[in-house]
Task: structure prediction
Amino acid sequence: MTIPGYIAIALGTAGSGLTLYRLWLSVALGRKEQLKSCEMAASMTIGTREIQEDSYGFVESEEGLMAVLADGQGKHYGGKIASRTAVEVFQDIFRDNNAFYNPQYYFRKAFQGANREILKQLEENQGCASVAAALIRERKLYYATAGNIKIAVYRNKELVPVTAGHTINVLARQKFMEGKLTRQEAVTLLEHHRLYNYVGQDGFHDVEFFDTPIALNSGEYVLLMSDGLYEGVKWKDIEECLEETGTSQEKAFRLVEMINTSQEEDKDNSSVVIIRVR
Result:
């Protein structure tokens, strides 16, 4: 082979290597940008209760992020154990990067796993938890819930709930729309906010999933809220807080402070997780 031939091969190899490097750099920078694309915050208050039974957690990876909020209920420390257990199970499962490419399968796996682990740690009826999780990848929101934690999206100065929840009054509305309850039967049940689905029970029901992922835009927020927060603060006040200046963490603190400074004598544990899309 002539010397020019060697040179041509060398140049070709160098060109291929440069192309691969540029491709790798593009993917790496894209992943870093994805990690920087969201600002996360959380805050909670014990209210007037003796025990804080809410727990939350995050998982960040190059593929995206997952946030989970759990609201425990139970005797003695049962609710606290149940909520903490659920959060830990979700974090363990979503540390697998594959979870970000098959959210529904991994959500189901996490809920079933949390249910089993709570039943393993606590005696029957000693503790349970409402759980909601939100996963954001490539500016798309995937979510799932069991219980009464609300997930909502704030856009165009309006906070829109994307989950219905698993309380008797919600179930009554659904059954009425399906023609399985009369109007009078449904009205009778509308005041009942008791949970019928949660993790930590032998008869654990299915999970409320996203139908299709929600596309998110820069400046929008995703909120996960326990019932102590969204029942203790007016919806309009939450919207006004999100519209104010400040970081997501400052806004999370403000929302919880509304609970702390309210005139209500009976204040539940209240928690909020805020994710802002940059």
